[in-house]
């Protein structure tokens, strides 16, 4: 049933994303308002934020345990389904990426930047950034967002149940949306720890879902880079797994200068297709684990 619950939640979540409905980030943002007031000089404290994440994670984990112990495991699945639908999802990205690709096609890089600047990391939003740097930054932000809102949740749900899935997703939300900015770097380090193993599993999956030969050339840099963050690992792996210089705009512009205006949309489609194929690999692997009795 774990497989069925996750598969149904994933399908529903993809549909909601296409309709731009039910943003999990907004749910977390409203929940974190309970910790918006702190005493002066304590803005970097993390106790309240961790409590706001541990509380729902603990309650859901406890409810799951009690239902299993009492022989009512089936009663937990509808709750897990609803929670997974709320935890996952990247609503809003589809429309932004479409507008970005159209602006790139027109050669209007300033308009393309305006469409995506809010999705880029704060230190990479410079209006004077080159088109190549802007596109690579956007590609990394896209992969990290999908990783944190789908693959990270899937991994911890299968490994430790709904409680750990909420905890891992909550740490990501704290790093992105906690009202007190001075505390966010500490939350970021915690979310990086939660994503260390899943990011490297997804890196391996890129090799299966993409160009295995190209991925093998880059694999040493990802698997041996213990301190590399999820974004770096995924970008290196995706660059090796994708063909046609999809994540190498400088080289693409030299080799195919006449097709430069189509690069933005083509590259993003390649990245999204790779992520979709990778999720299919994860779903098939989960099905095999269920059939073999491991899960």
From TrEMBL:
It comes from Marinobacter maroccanus. One of its GO terms (biological process) is response to antibiotic. One of its GO terms (molecular function) is kinase activity. The chain crosses the membrane at residues 44-67, 150-175, 195-216, 274-294. It comes from the Bacteria. This is Histidine kinase. Keywords: Kinase, Membrane, Transferase, Transmembrane, Transmembrane helix. The lineage of its organism: Bacteria, Pseudomonadati, Pseudomonadota, Gammaproteobacteria, Pseudomonadales. The keyword Isomerase does not apply. One of its GO terms (cellular component) is plasma membrane.
